[in-house]
Amino acid sequence: MTTLYTLALLLIGVIGTNLIKQFFPKIPEPFILIIVGVFLSFTPIFQNFELEPKFFMLMIIAPLMFLDGQKQSFSKIKKRFSIIFLLSVVLAVATAIVVGLIANRVEVQWTLPLAIALAAIVVPTDAVAVKSMTSSVDMPNGVGEALELESLFNDATGLVLLDLALSVLEQGKFSLIAGIGHFLFVAVGGALIGVIAGFLLVTIRTNITFRTVSPETTIIPISLLTPFIVYFLAESFGTSGILAVVATGIVHNWESNKLRLTSTRVQLTSNTIWESISNVLNSIVFIILGISLPIVWQEITHMGLVGIMQLLGLSILIYIAMYAVRYIWAFREDNQSANTFFDSHSNPKQHRFLSHIFAISGVHGTMTLAMAFSLPLTIANHAFPYRAELIVVATLIILISMLMSAIILPIALPKKAVAYTKPDLENTRNKMVDYASLKVSETTANPAVREAIMIQLQSQKGWLNDNHSTRNYNSQKYNILLNNTKDFIIHYLHSDSVEQKYSSEVIDAYEKILNRLKISSFFPTQPPTKIFSLCKGKISSYKVARPK
User: Fold this and answer.
1) Domain boundary among 389, 412, 435
2) Do 445 and 491 have their domain in common?
3) Which of 10, 21, 81, 133 is most solvent-facing, going by the fewest CB within 10 Å?
4) Residue 427: inside a domain, yes or no?
5) CB 343 within 8 A of CB 350
6) Pair 380, 466 in one domain
């Protein structure tokens, strides 16, 4: 029951945030979520709450990484492989080395492996947090894509580096060859497991799609279970579960493209479900960060003012160092893809500006906090050294990076211009579906096939999820009117004047057509005249007997 109450409170926090943010539109949503999380920490369930890293990785990070992978295609990965490797691995490792050396030099009592462990914790960036804090400004396309590609695999890089640092602390020695071998085993092994598992699951889902009448009842549950299965499988082999679920997501992107025209209902339902899950999980991430802050504060109060100021100074220094590494990398990188992202050839001033935006957008999120809390209480049969200090520094870096981006990016970037309104988009979409419906009516002779295609096309309008206030009539009243009209016509068909003029076969055929008209098959975005024109097309397709 405790787990159920915990989940219920987290969902209540998400709902509450959606209500609260309407009154504070200028405050970035992640900060509202964090504040809501702080308030939730005072409830009995979340008192003395400490993030469980394994649970967090499996239940929240794995599905989010799977969804991120689904947004990437094989062609894009192949085209951008060099820049992905540079951003997710080379830049992450270089940042970890710089941060580790600085932490080791400032905190002289920390060993180098301990400092590298801290560096690995603060390496992962959070592209979702950046998007949330820049929703009202126009982020340059190249920088936005670079941030997405960076966050695609640098979580796994940070986890592998942390695992390597902990193994050195455990064994008390470090071997470069063994370290590289371990890195390759964890990273490449995780990716291979993800690809193999992804293709197996895709094969199962493809066969189900083509062989069952209602594939969504099986495919969607399999899709929801996929990231958990793949993550658990990869971790059980000692490889990276994060890389595995990303690789599986990329494979599923290929499957989605393959089935796009053959399983519209499955695609629409699956996309809607995953979009909702993504929004909820991304919100829960920041709520958990807020819930964790009181625990971090308790650690801070035990350190005294001098200790706090020292750790705050170290956190600021690490943040500045990470900003400098990111800026220098973006400014100096000669990779062709990087040049495209940061406009390094056409305009030197714009290149410096975009490099600055990329550097300041290196926001760190709950992944960093989860890795900090994943530090063991004991290592090599001794208490883990400076564990509380590492958690405090990681938390301070998260808050500093979020505050700096929330302050600087809205000032540096222009306001987002809306090129079209939602009614414009809806109107254009509906016109496209109407045009396709008319072409189907003209070219398809079989009434049953035509009706099935029409229903499938009409379902793509998605009117049930739209805002009815933008329409010029009420859909509920429309449905009532259509039903009443149908009843009136049926009553008229059985009147004496009609029965005297037409044969019973003609009347029965007409009534059969009316009874086949299902309200759910049509869509109230159409005016009644267009609906009846569709009915007319149906009637004309039937061969009726002549009048008596």
Assistant:
1) 412
2) yes
3) 81
4) yes
5) yes
6) no
Dihedral through CA 521, CA 524, CA 529, CA 534, nearest 10? -20
CATH number at residue 99: 1.20.1530.20
Mean pLDDT is lowest, of 55-64, 85-94, 206-215, for 206-215
Helix (H) or strand (E) segment spanning residue 404: helix 387-412
Contacts of 5-9 with C-beta under 8 Å, sequence gap 24+, read 5/45, 6/45, 6/46, 9/40, 9/43, 9/45, 9/46
Helix intervals (H) in 259-365: 264-301, 304-332, 336-342, 348-360
- Burial zone of 176 (CB within 10 Å; 0-12 exposed, 13-18 middle, 19+ buried): exposed
Mean predicted confidence (pLDDT) in 93-107: 91
Q: Which of the two residues, 302 and 233, has the higher pLDDT score?
A: 233
pLDDT for res 68: 79
How many other CB atoms are there within 10 angstroms of residue 97's CB atom?
14
Give the span between the Cα atoms of 147 and 106, in whole angstroms.
30
Question: Distance between CA 190 and CA 233 in Å, rounded?
Answer: 9
Interval 200-218: pLDDT, tens: 988 887 777 667 667 677 7
Return the C-alpha torsion angle 22, 25, 28, 32, nearest 10: -40
Residue 171 is part of which domain span? Answer: 2-412
How many other C-beta atoms can be found within 10 angstroms of the C-beta atom of residue 175?
11
